[in-house]
Design brief:
By secondary structure, the chain is an alpha+beta fold. The chain folds into 2 domains: 101 residues, Ribosomal Protein L22, Chain A (Alpha-Beta Complex); 92 residues, Ribosomal Protein L22, Chain A, CATH 3.90.470. The protein contains 6 helices and 11 strands. The strands form 3 sheets. It has a 5-stranded antiparallel β-sheet. A 4-stranded mixed β-sheet has the order 4-5-1-11, with helices on one face. A hairpin with a 5-residue loop joins strand 2 and strand 3. Helix 1 crosses helix 3. The chain is globular and about 50 Å long.
């Protein structure tokens, strides 16, 4: 079971965000309150509420009864929902969540200018060739695939970005490490505004615009 859902921050009003705030833990609320900008607070609240809602749907545990923790590498998990995994990402106005019965990762990025310094410092030689052969969106495809893989792995920024490689083939992207295939990524371009990638791929279509 792998489900992916996307929501837009501005599809919800102040009253909705008060409900999302009540749903989350006191510890999470305290962290969110330290954010300087309201947009960051809303993205974080929506991501937490989205993960809780999706996990509640698959586990039967009430959304506000789920206990979220982070492991030693900072990866979130639901303490009282063993066997269910989730991951959250947000960029711009978009919040994405993946829920699965196996380790998973997701990343969404708003499409902007290509950052040549990032490519030079974090991409492998093979990934740079993909960039040279395609449109600017390739930069974001590679980045989101790499982020989704590192988040599934659980080490995130602690994983050397050049120790694994996003490889683009006729059927999409796969991730290789040490010469072995270690993941198959799902990548989608959302209306030319965002690129989202997740590992593993969802069982069906991405769920978008769903009201919590």
């Amino acid at each position: 079971m792998v489900r992916v859902r996307l929501l837009h921050v501005d599809d919800f009003d102040a009253g909705d965000y008060e409900q999302f705030r009540a749903m989350t833990s006191g510890e999470k609320r305290a962290r969110i309150d330290r954010f300087r900008f309201e947009a960051d607070r809303r993205r974080s609240l929506l991501g937490d509420a989205l993960a809780r809602t999706m996990l509640a749907e698959v586990t039967g545990i009430a959304a506000d009864a789920l206990i979220f923790r982070t492991d030693e590498c900072g990866k979130p998990y639901a303490e009282n929902a063993p066997g269910s995994f989730f991951n959250i990402s947000h960029s711009g106005n978009c919040v994405a969540c993946i829920v699965a019965d196996k380790p998973c990762g997701i990343d969404v990025e708003e499409i902007g200018e290509v950052d040549d310094d990032v490519a030079e410092n974090f991409y492998t030689a093979g990934e740079k060739l993909i960039l040279a052969d395609g449109p600017a969106e390739r930069f974001y495809e590679i980045w989101t695939v790499k982020e989704a893989y590192s988040k599934r792995d659980g080490r995130g920024l602690g994983l050397d970005s050049r120790s694994y490689e996003a490889v683009r083939g006729e059927d999409g992207y796969a991730v290789f490490a040490g010469g072995e295939k270690v993941g198959k990524a799902f990548v989608a371009n959302l209306e030319g505004r965002y690129i989202v990638a997740c590992i593993p791929a969802p069982d069906g279509e991405i769920e978008a615009g769903v009201v919590l």
